[in-house]
Amino acid sequence: xxxxxxxxxxxxxxxxxxxxxxxxxxxxxxxxxxxxxxxxxxxxxxxxxxxxxxxxxxxxxxxxxxxxxxxxxxxxxxxxxxxxxxxxxxxxxxxxxxxxxxxxxxxxxxxxxxxxxxxxxxxxxxxxxxxxxxxxxxxxxxxxxxxxxxxxxxxxxxxxxxxxxxxxxxxxxxxxxxxxxxxxxxxxxxxxxxxxxxxxxxxxxxxxxxxxxxxxxxxxxxxxxxxxxxxxxxxxxxxxxxxxxxxxxxxxxxxxxxxxxxxxxxxxxxxxxxxxxxxxxxxxxxxxxxxxxxxxxxxxxxxxxxxxxxxxxxxxxxxxxxxxxxxxxxxxxxxxxxxxxxxxxxxxxxxxxxxxxxxxxxxxxxxxxxxxxxxxxxxxxxxxxxxxxxxxxxxx
Length: 396
Prior knowledge:
It is built from 18 helices and twelve strands. By secondary structure, the chain is an alpha/beta fold. The chain starts with 7 loop residues before the first strand and ends with a strand.
């Protein structure tokens, strides 16, 4: 039993941010119904990273566990009626359609809340639901670029570099997840449902609360230096440095301790808080020139001995074998109906009484259509009639 056991979520989202938010609700025990076209959500068919599956690719698997699939044609009256009936039984309704699509399909807040006044309706978009940018594509890289974050790292003159993960999608997903939980708590206290609006642009701005406040409140300009640096507003040394056999990450270690550890007496005379910013390039160059003298393992041992913040730079092959990752159970392994043994990232939280779990793998297209229509009161004959008419798709 999960903490959200007994709650139902209707998930009309696609791509990453929406499906991830809905999956987190499912991980906590909610009955998540993924409503998708009769041909399946497009993410099923996009070989993300070149990884294909037998019938379900890795990307879809990673974002859609703990869900049931209802494959229905929302362009038909009968299809809309089915989802409306489903929404009347739900606690959360989540969609990330382009502006105007929800209204055109009859899946907008006014329609759904009219059927179910207690519904928590989560609407996700790229830039907001009104304003000059509503028609722009809400894609992770484009929002990373617009957010300003790319110019907080690297070296002056070098091209801005995106993050190595779909950072804005993930931040937006967790904003929607948080918003849904907060609105459910409000409903438990008042009985009132409400609309929760989340957009990628605001999420990207909000997560930079420290950096942007340094600029807007402190008036400190965002400035990259001549040497590569991990973050404009963090004192040197801060970033990834080459060693004799690889790389090491340094997270603003104390300059007095670093002077001893690296045998760089020049650093001992510097003030970390002041010179760490004003002499950033000089400090970075000194450290970068010294570190290739030893291996990563040697430097990590030395830094640990001097209580300096340093760590290894992993690839995925290193990460999955790390003893702390294994100890934490950061990945989960389960059996999937068509894909066999599946290992994917697990849960970012733990609960002593109601731990999250994998109750079912990502569904096949329409795998639960017949089951769900039965729950909604449709007869077997009526369901099969709708399948024959192309309103529904079922996995036999």
